[in-house]
Specification:
Protein name: GC-rich sequence DNA-binding factor 2 isoform 1
Strand content: under 5%
Helix content: over 70%
Organism: Macaca mulatta
GO molecular function, one term: DNA binding
Distance between the termini: 146 Å
Main location: nucleus
Radius of gyration: 71 Å
Order of helices and strands: HHHHH
Subcellular location: Nucleus
Number of helices: 5
Number of strands: 0
Mean pLDDT: 72
Length: about 250
């Protein structure tokens, strides 16, 4: 913490008075020593002033620890008073107004801006992909429609074409006798097929009759088999009954 100029002047005056007292005591002691021995040298004013400046510079440093308890206590007391004194605080017009944001808030804002930019870019990329997909679908639909139309046109043109008569082909001459002969041969063939169909029909009718007769025979034979089976079971039952009665009688 800084000390006011008035307090510094008071500290310097007190230190200088103490130094002067020390110098007077030193001078008196030096005179006594000079009287005792003429070999002792007395320091001049320049040496004393240089030593004083060294001491002042040492006191001005923060890590300086003074041997004078009263001096340190006064300096510390003044520092505490300057800290506790609200008048020593800078006025509103002397306070610095921060025009820049704090580093943390600035970083946060940069991070938020980067996140928002990333979101915007992702949304734009998604919209672009959707647009591309829609365009591809529309192009495919258009291609299909064009192909179907071409196929229909080709079919219509093929059906509308009329076969031209080729005059280069030679035909045999037509005669009534030839036509009559061909019709007779055709009629005979049809009659023969009709006769064969009649024969097959008669055969199928006979097969149906024979199958009916076999069914009747099988039905009658099945009744006889049932009767035979019934009589056999009845015989076994009677034999068992006779054996049982014989054992009881005995």
């Amino acid at each position: 913490l800084d000390v006011s100029t008035d307090e510094e002047d008071e500290i310097h005056h007190s230190s200088e008075s103490k130094d002067d007292q020390g110098l007077s005591s030193d001078s008196s002691s030096s005179l006594g020593e000079k009287e005792l021995s003429s070999t002792v040298k007395i320091p001049d004013a320049a040496f004393i002033q240089a030593a004083r400046r060294k001491r002042e510079l040492a006191r001005a440093q923060d890590d300086y620890i003074s041997l004078d308890v009263e001096h340190t206590s006064t300096v510390s007391g003044m520092k505490r008073e300057s800290e506790d004194d609200p008048e020593s605080e800078p006025d509103d017009h002397e306070k610095r107004i921060p025009f820049t944001l704090k580093p943390q808030t600035f970083r946060q804002r940069m991070a938020e801006e980067s996140i928002s930019r990333n979101e915007e870019t992702s949304e734009e990329s998604q919209e672009d992909e959707k647009q591309d997909i829609w365009e591809r679908q529309q192009m495919r639909k258009a291609v299909k429609i064009i192909e179907e139309r071409d196929i229909d046109l080709s079919r219509g043109s093929g059906s509308s074409k009329v076969k031209k008569f080729d005059t280069s082909i030679s035909f045999t001459p037509v005669n009534l006798e030839i036509i009559k002969k061909q019709l007779n041969t055709r009629l005979t063939l049809l009659q023969e097929t009709h006769r064969s169909h009649l024969r097959e029909y008669e055969k199928y009718v006979q097969d149906v009759k024979s199958s009916k007769s076999t069914i009747q025979n099988l039905e009658s034979s099945s009744n006889q088999a049932l009767n035979c089976k019934f009589y056999k079971s009845m015989k076994i039952y009677v034999e068992n009954l006779i054996d049982c009665l014989n054992e009881k009688i005995i």
